[in-house]
Each structure stands twice: as C-alpha cells, then as structure tokens.
Amino acid sequence: MTVQTAWISVFLQVIASVSGVPEVINLGGLFHSTDEIQKVAFKCATEMVQKDPHLLPNTTILTHMLDVPRYDSFQVQLKVCELMGKGISAVFGPQTGSTSSIVQSLCDNKEIPHVQSRWDYYQRRGSCLVNLYPHPSVLLKVCKKK
C-alpha cells in the first residue's frame, strides 16, 4: 500500500467516523488522463473502507471519477459543478496547480472538503483544503538533518 493510498484511507475513515453518517456518501475524484496511480489509489481506498463492516454500517460510498484537462480551469470548473449537483461530500484532486485553484475556490464557497496530494507552497489556512503532501517547512527540516 502506498503512502497516498494510506492517507486517502485515513481521510475516508475520518469522514466515516462522524456521527449521523448518511446512507450514501458521494465522493468526487478529479484526475488527469495520466494519473493512473491516483485513480487506483482512490478506488482502492474507497473499496477498503466500504468492505470494513465496522466503519460504515448501512452506508454506501459512491465514487464519481472524472477525467479533467490538465490546464483548462474552465472545463474543470464545469466538472466540479457537475459533481456538486450530485451532492458530493468531498473532492479529491486534481494534481496541477493551474486547475486545483479553481476547485479549491468552489469547494471553499460551498464548504466541501478538497483533498490534495501535491506540493502547494501557498497553503491557505481557514479553507476547506486537506493537503496530504508535507508542508514546505517540514520538508526543509528533513533536508537540514541530512
């Protein structure tokens, strides 16, 4: 299991531990055509959580995985709005900064968690962003120790 798969699994378990979990949890995944590893991690993590009878009794996870263009934020915006129309509980991805910003803005506006696993040197506090990539200051400490 990769670190990314583990973190996605942890995040899904956190969602599942909230009291008053609905019967259906819709999760959106935005991926570029070359993001096969992220697609597999997303599918595996949701399947792992779904198969554990203690995590989500009487709840079904529905995943909505969409391929999005790497540099066309307008098209990505339309895809996010499509996902929001389906009642998603969280959005995972995309991996590029040029399209991730519009996703973050839309998620902040609707208070929907946005999960990333990419380097983002400008992490805004107070937003609905959950970034699984280590903060730059943490990476700097690791480099200094070597």
Automatic annotation (TrEMBL):
Keywords: Membrane, Signal, Transmembrane, Transmembrane helix. SUPFAM superfamilies: Periplasmic binding protein-like I (SSF53822). Residues 1-20 form the signal peptide. Pfam families: ANF_receptor. Residues 39-116 form the Receptor ligand binding region domain. It is found in: Membrane. GO terms for cellular component: membrane. The keyword Phosphoprotein does not apply. Its main location: membrane. Gene3D superfamilies: 3.40.50.2300. The keyword Signal applies. This is Receptor ligand binding region domain-containing protein.
